[in-house]
Amino acid sequence: MTRTLAIANQKGGVAKTTTTASVGAALADQDVSVLVVDLDPQGCLTFSLGHDPDTLTKSVHDVLIGAQDIADVLLDTEDNVTLLPATIDLAGAEALLLMRPGREYALKRALAEVAQDYDVILIDCPPSLGVLTLNGLTAADEVVVPLQCETLAHRGVGQLLRTVTEVQQITNPDLKLLGTVATLFDARTTHSRDVLSDVSDRYDLPVLSPPIPRTVRFAEASASGASVMRGRKNKGATAYRELAENLRKHWAGQPLATFEFTD
Ligand code: ADP
Ligand code: MG
């Protein structure tokens, strides 16, 4: 059975793309077959997996509007995950899809054609709550919300959770909100912990274990277009590997490991 996980938060810079790429690469290392979907017109996931969005002639955009078969658009990557890439064309998909009936189901329908080839599908949602994110949430079994542990991290979370509830009511009753992934976490101060515990209490959101620490390496990896997991030894990569392990155990039927706040 294929597990489809959406990584969503309409706020930019909370590490949605880093989480998608890193968990994907970590799962692939554990011999899980993984498809990652770039739903952001900026194409950051596509770029970080070694493909230049500016030179691609086909992308998820063509798939969503029915102009290409998904199987003809998929790309291999050095991280051993398969990529459904994005290009800037996707910026026009909002408008094109809006005129179509069943527009929230376009990605779900496309993924159904290839899902049997993958154990896990990860969907990197764009920084908005528009029709692309609705497609991601409609196609997913589960969603996680990366949260950067800084002041005002809670802003927008209520709105996102309302969108998740609406999707559950209308297009995807089976969608499960797993919780938040704490990103750019600084364990040396109490600030990250305070912010996280505040958001978790306020919205009754479980925090997946482990939090992902801030690492200089990650910023470098993404800037160069190289995979975030390639510098295998850094503590961010180690944390993502553990998160991937915990997700696998959850998919195998065990309770999802969550972060406990201790004083
Ligand atoms: P989003 O997809 O939510 O916009 P990104 O994954 O693109 O966020 O991350 C935003 C920026 O933060 C990127 O420059 C990325 O390299 C950096 N980043 C992400 N995770 C970490 C981390 N654990 N430590 C340091 N920098 C990080
Ligand atoms: Mg992103």
What does this structure look like?
With 263 residues, the protein is of the alpha/beta class. It has a single domain, classed as P-loop containing nucleotide triphosphate hydrolases (Rossmann fold), CATH 3.40.50. 38% of the residues lie in helices and 13% in strands. The protein contains ten helices and seven strands. A seven-stranded mixed sheet has the order 3-4-2-5-1-6-7, with helices on both faces. A hairpin with a 5-residue loop joins strand 3 (75-76) and strand 4 (82-84). Helix 1 packs across helix 10 (235-251) and helix 5 (106-112) runs parallel beside helix 6 (131-139). The longest helix is centred in the C-terminal third of the chain and has 17 residues, at 235-251. The model has no long low-confidence stretch (mean pLDDT 92). The chain binds adenosine-5'-diphosphate (ADP) and magnesium ion. Magnesium ion binds at residues 16-17, 40, 44, 124.
